[in-house]
Design goal:
The protein contains twelve helices and 14 strands. By secondary structure, the chain is of the alpha+beta class.
């Protein structure tokens, strides 16, 4: 039952095939316990255990997520169930179930986890008492066995609670050290978009946010949308005031996501492609406001880890951009028009999509390249300096030039 509790929590993080395999292993173990099946040979089981351990090490080396730990642990548990039904194997299954519970606690933050943790503790204490009773027999008094089992069960509960509270999936920012994180955007996202300077870029492999999809997505690049800015002025993008977008019926082809966002300085929430609905799951008491351009912001912002649900459109809407998105500063209009006509040609302009594709290809070909250290624009506008002189810049330069 302890293993089934751990399997129940991990069902959303693994494939259905692994769930069926684990259930089959448990059923086979019951048949073996009733004397209706024989344990599988130890040689193949040992080989499968080594393969599971190797798979786990390979996943860690590749920088995999929680699945890199869960699948080897589940495979080792299934191997134990197919083997002999002895006290030693049962102890190993208890240990593996506890490790599965610890791995799931990284991404689970709900009442379901608390209920499964309570069931795990209850079954673990009862099972450990019975295992110790069978192992000790008449060697020691019953009181000693009970105290030992209760102490071990309480230790399992304490360790599980510690993992649940202190691992990154807790909404409490215990692992966020303010004086170390000051001035650093953990999520790689800044509220201020300025082409004149670039903030500190954190080049590390720490997680910015995790996303759980209830359905498998088609292979391809994923575009995550945060804040939407509409107006460019002297090297800076700003968001003009306006009314929130009207709510429309959500299409049946929308994509659901559960996002686990790490702390950062801003209050913008991220969603796949074109988010249309968001709902905070934890911490409680947080609301979401929608701004023009479908920018979602959490209120109040406290720098805590946030878990929220998103419904998105799989592709940009067909509606043409609003008038506020088509404005070009008068000081740049003539020069930008001349550069654009050199790329697309004055006579053969084509439709809007074809023009956008030509401009995108132009910016993705030499001499343009990505760089964080660029020459200062001086008195020039940063976009003009990027297009005519430096040809080097970061993502804001390329996006601003294309816009």
């Amino acid at each position: 039952m302890t293993f089934l509790s751990a399997l129940l929590l991990s069902r959303d993080l693994i494939g259905k095939g692994w769930v069926l395999l684990c259930l089959l292993a448990v059923f086979y173990n019951l048949l073996e316990w009733r004397g209706r099946a024989r344990p599988l040979p130890s040689g193949p089981l040992t080989l499968l255990s080594l393969l599971a351990i190797g798979y786990g090490l390979l996943g860690v080396w590749r920088g995999g997520g929680v699945e890199a730990f869960l699948i080897p642990l589940l495979a080792l548990s299934a191997v134990r169930f197919f083997g002999p039904c002895r006290v030693r194997e049962m102890w190993q299954i208890y240990a593996l179930s506890f490790l599965i519970l610890c791995a799931v606690s990284v991404v689970k933050l709900s009442l379901e986890f608390g209920a499964a943790l309570g069931a795990f503790t209850l079954f673990a204490v009862c099972g450990l008492i019975l295992l110790n009773w069978e192992r000790e027999g008449a060697k020691g008094p019953l009181e000693k066995v009970l105290l030992y089992s209760l102490g071990l069960g309480s230790g399992i509960l304490l360790l599980a609670v510690l993992f649940f509270v202190f691992l990154p999936r807790s909404p409490f920012a215990f692992l966020t050290i303010p004086f170390l994180e000051e001035g650093r955007t953990r999520a790689g996202f800044s509220e201020v978009i300025s082409l004149g300077d670039v903030g500190e870029v954190i080049e590390d492999r720490r997680v910015a946010f995790r996303v759980i999809f209830p359905k498998v997505l088609l292979p391809g690049p994923l575009y995550w949308r945060g804040a939407v800015y509409t107006t460019y002025r002297k090297g800076r993008w700003i968001r003009e005031g306006g009314s929130p977008p009207p709510l429309r019926p959500f299409p049946a082809r929308g994509i659901e996501q559960t996002v686990l966002l790490e702390p950062y300085e801003g209050d913008v929430l991220f969603g796949l492609d074109c988010p249309r609905l968001m709902e905070v799951i934890a911490p409680q008491g947080r609301g979401i406001r929608v701004f023009p351009g479908w920018t979602f912001r959490i209120r109040p912002s406290s720098g805590m880890r946030v878990k929220y649900r998103v419904l998105s459109l799989p592709s940009p809407p067909r509606d043409p951009p609003g008038e506020e998105c088509l404005q070009v500063p008068s000081s740049l209009r003539a020069r930008l028009q001349r550069i654009a006509l050199e790329v697309i040609g004055e006579r053969d302009k084509g439709d809007a999509l074809e023009i956008a594709q030509r401009l995108s290809s132009f910016l993705n070909s030499p001499p343009f390249g990505y760089a964080l250290n660029v020459s200062p624009p001086g008195d020039r506008d940063p976009v003009i300096h990027f297009l005519l002189s430096s040809h080097r810049g970061w993502c804001e330069h390329f996006a601003s030039a294309l816009a």
